Amino acid sequence: MGNGGGELNPALGYNGGMNPRLPLLVLAATVAAIAAAALFSRKTRVPPPKPPAALAEEVDRLRVLRRAEPAMPAGGVGHPDYAKRLDRVRAAAEPDLRALEAVVLDRREDALLRVDLLSAITARPGEPARLLCARLAADPAEATSVRLAALSGLMAYRDPHTFDVLRGLWESPRPFEGRHLIVVALGECGQPGAVPLLREALGTSQPADVRAHAALAMGGYPDVLQDLIRLSKDDAQLAVRENALRALARSPSPDAERALRESDLKPLAEALLKERAATSSRPERKGR
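Structure (tokenized):
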């Protein structure tokens, strides 16, 4: 039977109407559940990792030295105490280095300190380092020096995800200083989708440094041999012709060697042919 007829429902404890104690019971149960969840959350929440005390002390000292010498270049070149302490940071274990990501991401910190710490992290390539570099490079509000350092870090990776980041940077309506590094990274990433972007970077409307780096970056792809031969002969920009020759020297193709021998840039072409011959005569190292 349903309860509409006024029969006693032992589960709810009312006869035809609502038990007046029910709302209080529900409220008490809800409060208890919330309290238990909060307690569980406090017990299970994983705090952000903190660097060990010794590493944190080195970073603090680097911070102090940078404040005292604002003109100090990245890496502490010419400042032995800074360079020595930075080497200690770089020698830290990988999990400890990852704990420095919070400092690298903090824009209140000195930009070159962040660059130096990022270089320590990216010296151990891996997915965490790649994601950090992608995040920094893709942020248009980030300091230029930090974005360029992150781009340099991305050159260690040859995967589709890194290519997607680089393509997004190249196609961004908000290009930033040092755009030529995007082209260099596209040459290193080894993804076929980079070739159309490099051809675009060789357009005559592009800045001279971008075009020159694009010609060299094309050497990382085997399907652009004819592009490189044409560039080495006909491009109006000397740096493009020279870098196209350098890219051709990386190719084992007989057509590439013929283009080098026929080049009008004789001193460079002859030097590249010698390097090419020396490289090809070296015995291949067999894997263990």
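The longest strand covers residues 8-9. The chain has 16 helices and two strands.
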